[in-house]
Amino acid sequence: MTKPTVRASAALSHVRYEIRGQLARRAYELERLGYEVVSLNIGNPGAFGFRTPETMRLAIIENLKLAEGYVHQKGIFPAREAIVMQQQERGLKGITVEDVFIGNGVSELIDLTLRGLLNDGDEVLIPSPDYPLWTAATLLNRGRAVHYPCAAAEGWLPDPAAIEALITRRTRAIVIINPNNPTGAVYSKEVLSAIARLAERHRLVVFSDEIYDQMTYEGAEFVPMASLVHDTLCVTLSGLSKIYRACGYRVGWAVLSGEREGASEYLSALELLSSLRLCANVPGQWAVQTALGGHQSIRELTRPGGRLHESRRAILEAVAASRFLELVKPMGSMYAFIGVKPGSLPGFDDQAFALDLLEHKHVVVAPGVSFNAPYASHFRVTNLPESAVLRDVFERIEAQLEVYAQAEAARPTGSLRVVARE
User: Are 122 and 103 in contact (CB under 8 A)?
Assistant: First the structure.
């Protein structure tokens, strides 16, 4: 008798998260076989030797006795108060600790804030390319992801007019990721203001993902979206994982600002959902006040001579020297979204390339389609490794692309192209 099949939920049929998918699993298999694999697919500072500031670690240790029981579902008061003070320094007025929700990283809060908002078929405007959790969480919470284009030719900046043309009666919210993952774009005040105005006109909830808020280069200015949104609800999401190199602490927060009088039902829904999971990780919350109020060491890493700045420089120089690659200079975050020059490698496929690069050169990159891009010509790398490592990695990348070029040159005219493998 045939055993019954345990099937997955149909809700997962269109959910993708290749950043930790097939390539990551294959990389793990290769490592178990003894190969040294350089994983550039995940922005995990701890994997590349970065440490959380010592003062944050000490804050957790000193408060461990206060972290053994449940706390308020929104988070501990000192952490929420520190978040309010940071937002006030950025120009926000009228927010209190009651407007702050602390979660187990921004990832949990993305799911929670969408779950509290969406009904079947509600639409969320999401950038393309995007951080894929926004699309996945929209789908899992019964919504429809509508992607608005951010083109390389425009510096990966969105066109507010093109966004507005996508709005329908089912549109409930718009997502902004600034500084951007995966492209590294830092949005100008003019672009953000235009998006704020269209959100206000259409009464859309604005979700502003600002996890990389202080990670900018060459004088690029980060503008908090909440400082521009007044007549509709704005939800700002950030946390400790990137700026403070504390991914494993799993501490993120959502700050609600703007027009809240008409959002009481939604706020109650968020509190209910927060209560259902009891509370967020408590020990990590004790690091928030020290992190936000202390020395901002990220500035030493992103200025000239700093490790992130120099690693980014290594990527820029490697791409500039490449026969095949091009790059819109990333001005923020910890990534570069690299493209293949048009016409240089006909038939290039980012997923096939990523697999070949892993199998033959033992480097993991994230193919561009992982980020809901409608083209197969890009891939993302992180600039977390040391400069020397990145220079070596790009030599391997160039060598793999050269294999493709040689195979293309040897292919008889008119024949079908087969992806070259060593």
Answer: no
